[in-house]
């Protein structure tokens, strides 16, 4: 395991959460292991590990690019990551408004729809914990 891979796994866990990374690792096969190594080193161990911009800004950029390119399947994962990157709901709304102007309203609209559904899911998941804490 390279140092960049180790850094990438650490950053990936920090941003996406331990549960997500464990599930992804369990789903990894010999076939896709080289691809998983590539994204762990390049995306997480290089780009996300850089201190050139903060995690909030990186999160907003990632969401904007995903929406602008129509890569909607990754948006819920990165919306969930905002809980760890510091990007607020307002940041996400502003990001997708920017996408609407520069990449198209339909893509921004789809991204917002996914963000709303993911935030609702996140809030429902927290609700039992909040009720237990109130007891």
UniProtKB/TrEMBL annotation:
<dbReference type="Pfam" id="PF02627">
    <property type="entry name" value="CMD"/>
</dbReference>
<dbReference type="GO" id="GO:0051920">
    <property type="term" value="F:peroxiredoxin activity"/>
</dbReference>
<dbReference type="InterPro" id="IPR012788">
    <property type="entry name" value="Decarb_PcaC"/>
</dbReference>
<dbReference type="InterPro" id="IPR003779">
    <property type="entry name" value="CMD-like"/>
</dbReference>
<dbReference type="InterPro" id="IPR029032">
    <property type="entry name" value="AhpD-like"/>
</dbReference>
<dbReference type="InterPro" id="IPR052512">
    <property type="entry name" value="4CMD/NDH-1_regulator"/>
</dbReference>
<feature type="domain" description="Carboxymuconolactone decarboxylase-like">
    <location>
        <begin position="34"/>
        <end position="117"/>
    </location>
</feature>
<protein>
    <submittedName>
        <fullName>4-carboxymuconolactone decarboxylase</fullName>
    </submittedName>
</protein>
């Amino acid at each position: 395991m390279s140092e960049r891979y180790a850094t990438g796994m650490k950053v990936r866990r920090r941003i996406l959460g331990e549960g997500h990374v464990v599930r992804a690792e369990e789903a990894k096969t010999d076939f896709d292991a080289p691809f998983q190594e590539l994204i762990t080193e390049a995306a997480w161990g290089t780009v996300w590990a850089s201190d050139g911009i903060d995690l909030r800004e990186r999160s907003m950029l990632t969401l904007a690019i995903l929406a602008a390119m129509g890569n909607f399947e990754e948006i819920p994962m990165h919306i969930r990551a905002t809980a760890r990157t510091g990007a607020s709901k307002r940041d996400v709304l502003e990001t997708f408004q920017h996408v609407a102007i520069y990449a198209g309203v339909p893509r921004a609209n789809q991204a917002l729809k996914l963000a709303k559904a993911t935030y609702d899911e996140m809030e429902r998941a927290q609700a039992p914990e909040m009720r237990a804490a109130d007891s």
